[in-house]
Amino acid sequence: MNSKNLIQIKQFCLYHEIENTFISELHNYGLVNIIVLEEDEYLQPEQLPAVEKMIRLHYDLKINLEGIDAIANLLNKIEALQQNLTATQNKLRLYEQHQTE
After folding, report:
1. Coiled-coil segments, which residues (predicted)?
2. Global confidence as pTM
3. In CA terms, which of 69, 89, 92, 99 is 20 to 30 Å from 37?
């Protein structure tokens, strides 16, 4: 895998002024994926918004990792329910359109 588009964890942590171990702990909870290339650790760019949200939860709101894990799981469930609701509404619209024709 090419590290060109990846975010080096050391640099990310320096920028956000956090410990590298925080990202490792998020990885241990299954909240982020760490990619190891040539003995350096990286994050995928798609993960940045979620990781930055977790940083704010932990450092600004003082929520521990167990709480962050619970919040992340609940947010994922809400997102899945919203997608399911949208799909159901779309099917209902199609059904209603066929009924009126």
Report:
1. 71-98
2. 0.80
3. 69
Which tens digit of pLDDT belongs to each residue from 37-49?
999 999 999 999 9
Higher pLDDT, 100 or 81: 81
Adjacency order of strands within the sheet including 40-43: 7-8, 40-43, 35-37
For residues 44 and 97, give the distance between their C-alpha atoms in angstroms, rounded to a whole number: 42
Give per-residue pLDDT as tens, 16-29.
999 999 999 999 99
What is the number of H-type helices and E-type strands within the chain? Answer: 4, 3
C-alpha triplet 28, 72, 45: angle, nearest 5°: 70
Give the phi and the psi of residue 2 in degrees, each rounded to 5.
-85, 130
